[in-house]
Write a structure and sequence with these properties.
alpha/beta; Isopropylmalate Dehydrogenase; eleven-stranded mixed sheet; 18% strand; ICDH/IPMDH; IsoPropMal-DH-like_dom; NAD; oxidoreductase
Length: 422
């Protein structure tokens, strides 16, 4: 077994990042023990800024904020490249400054991927984070700021090709029934829909390009068609993602994790897991952050990248028991701290998962990495009670009104892509 299969990256931001990271490591350690695995957590040595921490440190220093943002972006990009080169396939990242993130996402051609289900109508949302307004560069002048953005044929085709492959992975034997793009393409003088048509002809698929408001209307009027792939410009998808989660059964953003996949050849397939909620700097250190999204991220990482099959199902079962017991943080109407919710979750895990031992008490606490950064099937040496439990902060509030739902009815079957999914 290659050791890199059981190495997971960890990148931590300001705000509640440290507390969220503690929850992630503790839950990942619990799954590692249940399955008798040893997981190395490779933690970035830098703590990355949130927007709030940048403004606190430099309330009027635009130049300093730009410099620190670029330094953070350069460092995080190198961290991802280093981990990918070492064979690591995934990182969990807490919330950091958006401009920092999008500089990296542009450079490494990132997409955000989420599978949704609306009463049996399955949908795959692929957010194009590699181009467009969010990935722009700022040019500051005396009384204005100009943001320059870019779209390209190569990136558009790369995002569409990934979406098609991912759909066949998601629905093996069926594939996608509709491939829909939601972009403000009328602003681009006809070039984006031309690129989409080129891709469609080359791969023998039908690609429909719509203005975002048309997609909204179709979603409201028809609801999602089964096996729709929605490839969306981030200008629309960033706002609509939380709405889609809420309307189509994936829960509130405070409870949801998602993944970003990098498509640049140097790091292709490297996956970054994150919570959907933000850095919640206002609740830093108050032990009130909703840990459910982080718990789900840890379970997904354990199952997909740390040899712990069934971790996601086990996590959902334990979370159901926690809910039944009325345990939750204040944002969900509860009265419990983050620490209490995490402890209840760990206690609710079935002892001894596949490959684990019956004597494993998941709620024992420890989950902390050793000095060597190991999360293993063995308890840390010393008294588990002596391992400090995290003090955790809050979850971000849901942003934006609650508008619409997913895409239009199918427009005919979408053929299998010529190349197999990687």
């Amino acid at each position: 077994m290659n050791a890199a299969e059981y190495t997971v990256g960890l990148a931590v931001g300001r705000g509640t990042g440290a507390e969220v990271a503690e929850v992630f490591e503790e839950v990942l350690a619990a799954f590692a023990r249940r399955h008798g695995r040893t997981v190395t957590v490779a933690r970035s040595p830098r703590t990355y800024h949130s927007y709030v921490s940048l403004k606190r440190q430099h309330p009027y220093g635009t130049g300093d904020i730009r410099r620190l943002t670029r330094e953070d972006a350069d460092h995080y990009e190198q961290f991802v490249r280093t981990q990918a080169a070492a064979g690591t396939r995934a990182v969990f990242r807490t919330a950091i400054n958006a401009q920092t993130l999008y500089l990296v996402r542009h450079r490494l051609h990132a997409v955000k991927v989420d599978a949704l289900d609306a009463a049996g109508a399955r949908m795959l949302l692929v957010r194009d984070q590699a181009q467009g307004f969010y990935t722009g560069e700022n040019d500051h002048r005396a009384e204005s700021v100009r943001r320059t953005t870019e779209f390209s044929r190569a990136t558009t085709h790369k995002v569409l090709a990934y979406a098609l492959r991912r759909a066949w992975q998601e629905w093996p034997g069926e594939g996608p029934a509709a491939l829909v793009m939601a972009y403000k393409f009328h602003l681009l003088d006809g070039v984006l829909d031309t690129w989409a048509q080129e891709f469609a002809e080359r791969h023998g698929v039908e690609v429909r390009v719509f203005q975002p408001d048309t997609v909204n209307r179709n979603l409201i009027t028809h609801g999602p068609a089964d096996r729709t792939v929605l490839v969306a410009g981030n200008e629309w998808a960033d706002i609509m993602h939380v709405v889609l989660l809420d309307r189509f059964g994936a829960g509130r953003q405070e409870e949801h994790c998602t993944r970003n996949v990098h498509l640049h050849a140097d790091v292709e397939g490297f996956t970054e897991y994150q919570t959907v909620h933000g850095s919640a700097d206002d609740l830093e250190g108050r032990n009130l952050v909703n840990p459910l999204a982080t718990v789900r991220a840890a379970a997904a990482v354990a199952e997909q990248h740390a040899g712990c099959p069934g971790a996601v199902a086990a996590a959902e079962s334990a979370l159901s028991r926690v809910r039944e017991e009325g345990i939750g943080t204040p944002d969900l109407g509860g009265r419990h701290s983050t620490t209490e919710v995490v402890a209840a979750f760990l206690a609710a895990l079935e002892p001894g998962g596949p490959g684990g031992t019956d004597g494993e008490a998941a709620g024992r606490g420890g989950g902390a990495a050793s000095d060597a950064g190991k999360l293993s099937g063995q308890e840390p040496s010393g008294d588990p009670a002596s391992v400090p439990r995290p003090r955790v902060g809050p979850a971000a509030r849901p942003y934006g009104p609650e508008p619409d739902g997913p895409p239009p009815r199918p427009y005919g079957p979408v053929p299998r892509p010529p190349a197999p999914a990687p």
